[in-house]
Amino acid sequence: QSVLTQPPSVSAAPGQKVTISCSGSSSNIGNNYVSWYQQLPGTAPKLLIYDNNKRPSGIPDRFSGSKSGTSATLGITGLQTGDEADYYCGTWDSSLSASVFGTGTKVTVL
Amino acid sequence: QVQLVQSGAEVKKPGASVKVSCKASGYTFTGYYMHWVRQAPGQGLEWMGRINPNSGGTNYAQKFQGRVTMTRDTSISTAYMELSRLRSDDTAVYYCARDLTAAGLLFDYWGQGTLVTVSS
Fold it and tell me: Which region holds residue A78: left if phi is over 0, alpha if psi is between -120 and 50, else beta?
């Protein structure tokens, strides 16, 4: 059972915006940076956002991240069919002394 | 360029052990922690543990304590994850991932994954 909670699915039409929430606690999100990963079908996860809101080289600015208290949010604007994937948040949990991931959110482009 | 190349798919019987390898290239192997993450069919990501390739020190998720062993061979820049006493619910894709921060916060490169199937 994951300690980080995400909605199972979100959807929107092409060109629209979606946001994905990631809820945790003071032992994880509240006191550590959050990363976000995109997992396209049949492939390994790919780093999308790190340090709450930074994008690695090559990640378009349509993807954004934010954090407030014990929650984090991933935003995707200008939704494209290629964005259909599973998205996971991740961080370190100081109480568990373990890396933890969110439950995952499937993004569907209508 | 950084690459993590994992060993091929495995089929094991319940009670057996499996050892998955992860060969790193394109960077200094001993400079970054290596983590192992697994994903059961249709399920989410599950952290298993990490190894410091420089010292060999390890940290394991409580769930896998006593069943998992992570090692490395610095001469060939390869990390290993061995899981023993396999059960059917260990059937999953196993990934290695490089940790850029040494704090379990940021996995910037992932292996392609190794499917381990446990079946009698």
Answer: left
Q: What mean pLDDT do residues A83-98 have?
A: 95
Q: From CA B69, how far away is CA B64, in angstroms rounded? A: 9
Residue A1 pLDDT more than 70?
A: no
Interface test with A, best of B47, B63, B95 (most A CBs within 10 A): B47
SS3 label, residue A13: coil
One-letter amino acid identity for B38? R
- Looking at the predicted structure, is the pLDDT value of residue B104 above 80? no
pLDDT band at residue B120 under the 50/70/90 scheme: very high
Q: Which of B47, B100, B106 sits opposite A100 (nearest CB)?
A: B47
**What are B74's two structure tokens?**
């610095």
Q: Nearest-CA neighbor of A4 among A58, A71, A80, A66? A: A71
* C-alpha span between A26 and A12 (Å, rounded): 31
Identify the DSSP state of A62: T
- Per DSSP, the three-state class of B89 is helix
